[in-house]
User: What shape does this take?
Amino acid sequence: MRIQSPGLHLFLVILGLLSTCQQKQSVPQTAFIQPNQDTLITSGGVLLAALNAEPETLNPLSALSEPARQVIGLIFLRLANINSDLTTFTPSLATKWDTLPDARALRFHLRTDVRWQDGVPVTARDVQFTFRLQSNPAYGWDGLPFKTNITKVAAIDDSTVIFFFKHPSRTMLMDAVEGEILPEHVLREMTPDQLLAADFNQQPVGNGPFQLVEWKPQQTIILKRNPDYYDYPRPYLDRVIFKIIPDNANLTRQLLSGELDLAENLLPRDFERLSLRWREGKGNLRPVSFLGRQYDFIAWNLVEPSSYRSLDHRRTDNIIDKLRPHRLFGSRTVRAALTMALDRQRIGEIVNGELFRPMNGPIPLILWAYNPNANHIWEYNPARARQLLSAEGWQDNDYDGILEKGQIKFQFEMLTNSGNIRRQHALTLIQDQLKAIGVAMRPRLVEPQVLIEKFIVPREFDALLFGWNVGLKMELTSLFHSSTFFHPFHFTSYYSTTFDILEDRARAALDTRLAQQQWDKIAALLSEELPYTWLYYKVDCAAIHKRFRNVIIDQRGVFVNVAEWWIPAAERLPHDRLFLNQP
Assistant: This one.
């Protein structure tokens, strides 16, 4: 993803010093570095970067995981790229845009020098075609909520496209540019089922700064500089080689041995170790920390799985009347008691070290609508938790250490995805803290794909320890709005007409102040009703070799401007010269 630079010699980098991570009340700040004024930018070099999992696809329409998105972002272009303020945009495939007189249409003017990697020109018809796929529920694109206010997209000529909207909105531009543009000439004859099984998923035809050379499953994904990229001489790097390394110990070892140049999602102890080496001047790896886009939470299933199973998913009328509340978590008082029984500050500290921020409500800390004072905060108070459960009729009448109510024991499973050390550790801590108030929680680790397909989507679970990677649009529709009740991400079965009204108002408000008032009410509502118990918001920590220049790393990701990274010739390592003068 390319963004405009402030000048040839002024480079923006977020410095991730250990002291920054340890100050819980301050968000890591952006710092500026002024390199040698005589330094000339030169092309060449290789980036060896880690992915913590195998991408499931390189098709932007069906990719869900962060590793897949990271690779896709280097192969495909968007109409425009979001800036570091998370509200404004920089041209990419579109050179400029304007609002038409009735304020319900945006006109984009496209570059005429961009080609797909098979040589076919990129045109407005590709943009129009991409919208048709994105807005068709049969393709299952997870960015569909961005497109619900768009009525149609019209290709006026090869370089002009107009987006038409149902009503004016503060997010019209963000909605229009969300998602990578796809090649119509490659995909137009495919049905949804055919596209999901197409060679394109492993051999994409893109239009971005890099193109796929080779994908060795569970090993490497190799990208090379796109020789026909419109923005010559960018990209400067010859290759970006992704190494698939799911094991944290192996990842850190390869960083320290020089087999990797870049890795993110470092464990706290590994980040501290690298930071100490950097401060002592012993290493070439610059530690980088920033308030990222990930948070973890407990999702409570608010309805009995069998009740949800019996619904006709083709009908959305009178849903709430057809559902049976969950035997344990259908009560808001019970959810509040369980939340108060958890020492979430301690869980955050043990699991993340100092690399987290408390989270008490639904609005991510990096988005403009976040207001910590709007959330209801449930303080850690196990004695009060026991009182609330007792008032609901939960007693340990047989003195076996587990509460019961009639014939129902207060015991359940809490699922999380295997392979995530942080969540597995948190699950054990949660189990111990709930046991202290007479609640028996059984941890269960499930392989990620199985967790999604067999438990989350059909809602066959009681409670779930999970996490989200935050989108950059302020919306909660896909998680809690009744219009998405049967969508995969709406797995708590939360249903509230009050929430629907508030979010509809928030998203329709053209004035920021009025929108903020609605989001504050939403934060108060959800933090009171607790479909989730929010645990912590992560401070992301990464490390990158110091030879790379013009690096920008922030909430948008670690690969936000890789096309602009470069390496001084005098600082290149042997592997930087492997592809010298190769196309």
Notes: Confidence is low (pLDDT under 50) at residues 1-38. The radius of gyration is 25 Å.
